[in-house]
Amino acid sequence: MSIWSGPYMTAYGKNEYNEAKAKYEEAEAKYNALINKVQKISEGLKEQFEKDPEFIGYKAHHRYRAKNNAGGVVMGDMAFVLNKELTAVVAQWDEEEIEMYNAFLQQAAEAAELAQDPE
Fold first, then answer.
1. Residue 87: how many CB atoms within 10 A of its CB?
2. pLDDT band of 113, cuts 50, 70, 90
């Protein structure tokens, strides 16, 4: 945005200033909306961590090797959550999602340690 926003601006300069100001306000609104969304998610996660753990089922890890339609060998790694009665799959993740989840748990544990020890 221009420093000279007074009567010394040309019509082109005023137009450029107004466009830049509109972009800035739009970006600021998106930023504030994202901050609010992250805070809500963070509060929800804090509530979940504070609750006593509840047994929801079993976790099964499955590593496989199979052939695809082209005849090539495909290797995979999956994790499943089964219900208490072992009759249904509640959730499933592939290898990349498992790694992201483990990284998230590690970051959450580090954040919890920092929150307890504010040095």
1. 8
2. confident
Q: Are residues 70 and 48 in the same domain?
A: no
* pLDDT tens track for 18-31: 898 999 999 999 99
38 and 67 inside one domain:
no
d(CA 3, CA 116): 46
Structure tokens at 107: 């970051």
Average pLDDT, the chain: 84
The model's pTM is 0.43
Pair 17, 2: CB distance under 8 Å = yes
Tokens 């340690």 belong to residue: 113
Token pair of 53, please? 């753990």
Give the structural domain span for 112.
58-116
Confidence of residue 16 (pLDDT cuts 50, 70, 90): confident
Closest C-alpha to 41, from 106, 104, 97: 104
Number of domains in the chain: 2
Phi, psi of 86 (to 5 degrees): 60, 40
